[in-house]
Amino acid sequence: MVGSDEAASSWTIDELAVEAGVPSRTIREYQRLELLPPPRRDGRVGRYGSEHRARLSIVGRLQERGYSLAAIGDLMGSWEQGRGLGSVLGVDADPAVLDEAPTELTDEQLTELVPAFGDPDLVERAISVGLLHVGDGTIIARSVAALELVGLAIAAGTPPPAAVEIVAGINEGAATIAAAAIAPFVEHLWPRRAEVDVAMLLSRARLLMAQAAASLVVHELGVALGHQADLDDTGELAAVVDRVAIGQLRRLTPHENEPT
Length: 260
Known about the structure:
Structural class: mainly alpha
CATH architecture of the largest domain: Orthogonal Bundle
CATH class of the largest domain: Mainly Alpha
Distance between the termini: 58 Å
């Protein structure tokens, strides 16, 4: 028997849907994606509590901020591992995250992080694409996150040279983005520096640009995966793409995004 206090914040799935203002099928989908914990069982009936209501509210807020369901799952995982929700929600606007400092590594530290870098040829390629730089007796990793991405790809079975090429593509894309942003700045804003607080503008713009670039890259990942899924006759890749839910329009192929 559910007590009166517990019953006041206990709902069936349909009742929770009304309370939260979302369809019941959305709640089921969030459970499938593990964004919501399973309900408490009351006989054969699932009962949802205030923690489910709060989680739905958080998911909704994050979606409004442009996060994909996959990203929300990562954020929830970080939260459950002990990070405060405030830091989780604010990470996209943290200058410290954007200004990731280059990190000096010894040869031993580098190969401990990514054992494949015991191959001098792979190190040379990583240097040529900007992943690594040679310091005074040390190796400098321009982005530890990029280094970890290479390590993750290799651990998953990607050949080491192909894993380094992932970062090469990211670096090339970053240079293109930067050039596209700087051109109008130099042409239109810098000549008006007596009228515009250029330092304030750049400080704010870099945050927005980083968030916009990350969001657009994730979306394009979803588009590319969706296109590959459409070519897969087995349907297995489509099932994986739908489960991971990368990008708001993950199954939208580029030609479908064009206006008719």
